[in-house]
């Protein structure tokens, strides 16, 4: 059961309603995660701005979705597993690849290195060893990508944790953060 009910434009504060209206104009709907974060318009504005800025990252949109899935997997966030699987499909990724991404596996070795880096960051709370950094670098991860992965981890942890705390109702086709082949 949802702990924090999603808001609508009519139930949100004026600032929250304005943000929800902008999301609806852009996406054609308001995902429950955003309707839930709308309780704190400053937090919603910040997460939207962070996400928009990361849209300009050197890491491609499909790989950003793969990273979001790996982070959702390690944090066991079914909402984000569901949402990012749907978005990943829109970015041309197939079901098998997306399912593997939940376990930080990928068909491309460099993408897998990025996914491993992201999950290592989550699991170690950012305290990576020299060996973990070297593994990423040996797979071709450069400093720009390393910093972007940290930013993507931070952004995705926020949404994972909001979903855990709010028990956000999933409004995408359900995907378990614990894939069957994990």
Description:
The chain is mainly alpha-helical. It folds into 2 domains: 14-54, Single alpha-helices involved in coiled-coils or other helix-helix interfaces (Up-down Bundle), CATH 1.20.5; 61-166, AhpD-like (Up-down Bundle). It has 9 helices and no strands. Helix 4 runs antiparallel to helix 5 (78-90) and helix 7 (109-124) runs antiparallel to helix 8. The chain is globular, with a radius of gyration of 16 Å. The two termini are 27 Å apart. The mean pLDDT is 96.
Could you give the order of the helices and strands? HHHHHHHHH
What is the helical fraction, as a range of percent?
Answer: 55-70%
- Overall pLDDT confidence: 96
User: Oligomeric form of this entry?
Assistant: single chain
Let me know the CATH homologous superfamily of the largest domain. Answer: AhpD-like
Q: Number of helical runs?
A: 9
Percent of residues in β-strands: under 5%
How many structural domains does the protein architecture include? 2
Largest sheet: none
Instruction: Quote the CATH topology of the largest domain.
Output: AhpD-like
Protein structure class = mainly alpha
| CATH class descriptor of the largest domain | Mainly Alpha
Rg over CA atoms, rounded to whole Å, is: 16 Å
Low-confidence stretches: none
CATH architecture of the largest domain: Up-down Bundle
Total beta-strand segments: 0
Q: What is the overall shape?
A: globular
Distance between the termini: 27 Å
């Amino acid at each position: 059961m949802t702990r924090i009910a999603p808001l609508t434009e009519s139930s949100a504060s004026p600032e929250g309603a304005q943000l929800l209206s902008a999301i609806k104009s852009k996406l054609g709907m308001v995902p429950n995660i955003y309707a839930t974060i709308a309780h704190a318009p400053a937090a919603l504005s910040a997460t939207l701005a962070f996400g928009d800025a990361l849209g300009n990252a050197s890491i491609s949109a499909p790989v950003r979705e793969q990273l979001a899935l790996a982070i959702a997997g390690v944090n066991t966030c079914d909402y984000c597993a569901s949402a990012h699987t749907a978005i990943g499909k829109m970015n041309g990724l197939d079901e098998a690849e997306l399912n593997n991404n939940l376990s930080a596996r990928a068909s491309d070795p460099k993408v897998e290195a990025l996914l491993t880096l992201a999950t290592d960051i989550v699991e170690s709370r950012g305290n990576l060893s020299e060996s973990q950094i070297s593994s990423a670098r040996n797979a071709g991860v450069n400093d720009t990508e390393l910093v972007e992965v940290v930013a993507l981890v931070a952004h995705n942890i926020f949404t994972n944790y909001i979903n855990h705390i709010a028990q956000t109702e999933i409004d995408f086709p359900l995907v378990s953060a614990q894939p069957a082949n994990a």
